[in-house]
Amino acid sequence: xxxxxxxxxxxxxxxxxxxxxxxxxxxxxxxxxxxxxxxxxxxxxxxxxxxxxxxxxxxxxxxxxxxxxxxxxxxxxxxxxxxxxxxxxxxxxxxxxxxxxxxxxxxxxxxxxxxxxxxxxxxxxxxxxxxxxxxxxxxxxxxxxxxxxxxxxxxxxxxxxxxxxxxxxxxxxxxxxxxxxxxxxxxxxxxxxxxxxxxxxxxxxxxxxxxxxxxxxxxxxxxxxxxxxxxxxxxxxxxxxxxxxxxxxxxxxxxxxxxxxxxxxxxxxxxxxxxxxxxxxxxxxxxxxxxxxxxxxxxxxxxxxxxxxxxxxxxxxxxxxxx
Length: 323
Fold this sequence. Notes:
Layout: H1 2-6, H2 10-13, E1 17-21, E2 39-43, E3 52-55, E4 62-66, E5 69-71, E6 82-88, E7 115-125, H3 126-132, E8 140-143, H4 149-154, H5 158-163, E9 166-169, H6 183-193, E10 196-207, H7 211-217, H8 221-230, E11 233-244, H9 254-266, H10 270-281, H11 288-305, H12 310-320
Parallel strand pairs: 1-2, 1-8, 2-4, 5-7, 8-9
Antiparallel strand pairs: 3-4, 6-7, 9-11, 10-11
Helix pairs in contact: 9-10, 10-11
């Protein structure tokens, strides 16, 4: 069904646009079903001296890779050519912001944020990058920037950010970096913007135990992992996903409704996918929307028939009955 939708003429001239900040070098799992139809703009921290590479990729219709640190300030600093980049003990924790392991001394993951080195890396603002590519919209925005997720989203500008159909963030709950964008700030901004709704919020974290106490159990790395697995994690950051509400007339184009349904279906939000089919059918006579509605209904019934669903049904009935 996704192939049928994205093969339509609407997406020949206006393909889905994906932004991946903190790209890991691997295709985002949620994009597998439609990546071949999409244009992707990916950023990583590789400091090789070639600016950016535009190339065709086996995964995407078009892939732009920018070997720069992406920045988000809405000021003259957007044009800075380089910036300090703080390399930490764990590569996944390196950031444009200074790490503060002293603030998380009682957490098992604190050593990952120990500063190893400060280097100068090339920078490029998100907004100027999109402008240089003549891209006026982003359909799926995904960022894991270690502390700057919100400022990067805001750097899209109000027009672009409100048109985003899906947005993924990984902001901190704990204070780990100087001046970082926190989860509560993302929640507040998105509520004030009032153009998206929160699909999921998954807390992630680390056990609250000092590294020294953890070492006191065992010095064996494998056994230490078992000790960690036995401890309950405490919330340190969150994985957030938003979908566009499709409340504004400007969002209710045939292309956006088709693509919004694809994204909602990818996220298994079949109820919202059905809402989008009703919005579409009230505006457009295209029979594709009847097919999409039938598909979503089948997915709902399919979910009901999954064996793993029945225990949840029993629990809900027990709760209703006061058992």
